[in-house]
Amino acid sequence: MAQRDATHDLARKSWVASANTPGTDFPVQNLPLGVFSTDGAAPRCGVAIGDQVLDLKAAHGAGLVSNPAAAANSLGPLMTEGRRASAALRAEVSALLSEGAPSRTDLLVPMAAARMHLPTTVRNFSDFMASYDHCARLGVRRDPKNPLPQAFRQLPVAYHSRASSVRVSGEAITRPHGQWQRQDGTMHFGPTEAMDYELEMAVWIAGDNAIGEPVPMSSAPDRIFGYGLLNDWSVRDVQRWEMPPLGPFLGKSVSTSVSAWIVTAEALAPFEVPAPAQEPPALPYLDSAWNRSNGALAVRMTAAILTPRMRSEGAAPFVLTDTQFAGMYWTAATMVAHHASNGCNLLAGDLLGSGTVSGPEETARACLAEIGLTGAVTLPNGETRRWIQDGDEIVFRARAEAPGAVPIGFGECRGVLNPAIAWPA
Amino acid sequence: MAQRDATHDLARKSWVASANTPGTDFPVQNLPLGVFSTDGAAPRCGVAIGDQVLDLKAAHGAGLVSNPAAAANSLGPLMTEGRRASAALRAEVSALLSEGAPSRTDLLVPMAAARMHLPTTVRNFSDFMASYDHCARLGVRRDPKNPLPQAFRQLPVAYHSRASSVRVSGEAITRPHGQWQRQDGTMHFGPTEAMDYELEMAVWIAGDNAIGEPVPMSSAPDRIFGYGLLNDWSVRDVQRWEMPPLGPFLGKSVSTSVSAWIVTAEALAPFEVPAPAQEPPALPYLDSAWNRSNGALAVRMTAAILTPRMRSEGAAPFVLTDTQFAGMYWTAATMVAHHASNGCNLLAGDLLGSGTVSGPEETARACLAEIGLTGAVTLPNGETRRWIQDGDEIVFRARAEAPGAVPIGFGECRGVLNPAIAWPA
């Protein structure tokens, strides 16, 4: 759990001028962590501030950041140390970057010159399905009377997903080959005809629990290092065919894109809101007073598309989804507690996906499978889309907003779909 | 693909006397790889030979093994180098340990004094369901007319499973807590009442394919580093409740046990047999002439139980399952090719589980869920078992046998079930 403190103060400004621009994702109240490199140099940890990156390795070398973990080439060591270490780092970085402190422009790298990397090697990736509206909309096709998974109201439904194919925002995706049965019963193997996105929140894990040792709800919040955006690229024709009864496999392991910046749990303290009421109430192992009052986060999330024609026309990405993370039926803390309830060891650097963040509004359908239930989308230039086409780029953005707090952003999670390869001979 | 060569010769003996004892798992024709340590020393790679372990680090230091990867503290580097490297290592080790070579007892450690470790950090773990008989038996309860998963005859059905909880043989398992719905509709959270084993073959991956690059059937065999035993501990009450529609999650992530010794693909060359006929024929991306003629392996596998009372009575483990790996509907090569067919990157050190190796015989039911379809098992001392009880130990063994070849064994994969912990306050 994180407390609201002086690092969140409305009046706080930075000596980095771009961090004070209204609408920036990265004011001094945010301070998200990532891993970057510049020409030829090794990857190192950094903090996003306005349109700059604070080089944490250099800041550590200058004696302005005390924890050697900040000088590592990934966020793994800091994640292993856990929330106390990341909170202490935040306090130091906030002091270093705030107005009144000496301007240390020598420690800054322009974001435009930084290449971003995965924050850490993803150890394990588990993907949840925590949105009532996502399940209800898509489940109606399967069973109009019982659209929800049987356990949906009792536990955060999830599956183990693929860690090796998690990639950082900006890397292109290749249209995959796959197998499915055509409606006439014949079998087909070839490039997918139903490529989709799923707009999700990424939850990065701090610290380890030993195998056999559950994580009770009282300590689950402290296992959350931070949050990011996650595109759970989905291959619908493959998925429908392969799923029964063991769940999605190749429909999900093509690639998973995550945003480069991790917004820490500390930065999000001002945006904690009550979790949605649950009926029936959750079993005790998934319930806590803190979770009921603070377990959800007021984050608005969008997914947009930029087609090749839109790009050539100089158009901005068109928003397909505009949704609220706070509406999810299960919170991140319940995901952690449930996941470890059988003694499964969650490791620092593990990644959880929240599942598609759909809401009740028609504009809050967070994947094309849902949007397409009412037909193809028509874009402003007249193009239509039922599924993602070659060359289309999908762009996620998100922003935490709450009364009395400086809004903070998540940066982007974007990826373009490249055409399928020729199948190897 | 591996060729049968002089390392497999029937007449070949070792200067390690125990390797020449009929019935040993580890004659000089086997040479399985593992990671071991002795009092206080760091883990290092070794080769099982009779009742001894050849210390590969020491052998490399003595100039008898050329590849520095053999001197690493895990098999990861050798797996990364791939099959050419492991084949070259086999040739050197075979020459070093064969009769006629100088006796280098200084390079041996008694197996009884060696503590075994995981062969490498498991990067990703995917579990298949490739036995027709396992699916048919258990599927009948769900749908007597269509017991098989809809895609079963078209692709090797699989799910992403949990890498962090993969453990080496010998480590105890803790009875997990879990949630399920009672038959009267009430919800329950507590220690499982239906703990099961699944007797599977482990397939360890060699080399990497880049994301977006499939592995065609022509190169799939060369991505298989070797084989071992795998107990996919399963929590049936939890699994039944949580599975629809995303598949098993906490029912499978409690622990997965693997045998300590990896029998290399090279060692298994004499035991290659034709894959079972498939109807309908597999799609071309899952078919090759080599797979049809050589894709299966003649390995007999057993699962046995040792209860606390049996232990106190000095009884031997009682065999519950006696089955043949060669009967699996899908081969390991098709698992590799299917897994990578969407461009998913398989990494050196990844682990595949074959799925429960059940056969058509009543004695070849390879988990208690199947065995229990005809009631609880009665053990020789009169005890009965529907599910695994506290203190029970499950012991897997396996042996490759073929005409004209020296039989080779897999060692053991064993684990005892400890009682559930008190739920943390």
TrEMBL record, chains A, B:
Protein EC: 3.7.1.2
Gene Ontology biological-process entries: homogentisate catabolic process; L-phenylalanine catabolic process; L-tyrosine catabolic process
Keyword Calcium: yes
Keyword Repressor assigned: no
Segments forming domain Fumarylacetoacetase N-terminal: 29-119
Binding-site positions, Mg(2+): 232, 252, 256
Binding site for Ca(2+): 127, 198, 200, 232
Cofactor: Mg(2+); Ca(2+)
GO molecular function: fumarylacetoacetase activity; metal ion binding
List of residues binding substrate: 142, 239, 356
Domain (Fumarylacetoacetase-like C-terminal) ranges: 126-414
A UniProt-annotated Pfam family: FAA_hydrolase_N
Entry-linked NCBIfam families: fum_ac_acetase (TIGR01266)
Name of the featured protein: fumarylacetoacetase
Taxonomic source organism: Neoroseomonas marina
